[in-house]
């Protein structure tokens, strides 16, 4: 009986070790797992924000031009 308990405890320890190792590796592979990945994500999100801001500026300028041309068309149509 004592041998069975020792073997059972040894198996439990081995299982816990591998579970701990798997959890540790899973945390490192996630984007928020390490500080380096967090910094890279911040840089990428900052670049994405800048791209979106530039695109929004272009669209706003295009909207102003289209609004002006629409007003000109309305004036020419009413005249």
TrEMBL record:
It comes from Alkalihalobacillus alcalophilus ATCC 27647 = CGMCC 1.3604. This is Uncharacterized protein. The chain crosses the membrane at residues 6-23. The keyword Transmembrane applies. Residues 28-47 have a biased composition (Polar residues). Residues 28-56 are annotated as: Disordered. Keywords: Membrane, Transmembrane, Transmembrane helix.
């Amino acid at each position: 009986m004592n041998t069975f308990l020792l073997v059972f405890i040894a198996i439990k320890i081995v299982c816990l070790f591998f579970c701990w190792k798997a959890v540790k590796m899973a945390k490192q592979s996630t984007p928020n797992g390490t500080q380096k990945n967090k910094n890279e994500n911040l840089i990428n999100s900052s670049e994405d924000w800048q791209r979106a801001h530039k695109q929004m500026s272009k669209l706003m300028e295009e909207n102003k031009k289209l609004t002006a041309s629409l007003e000109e068309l309305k004036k020419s149509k009413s005249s």
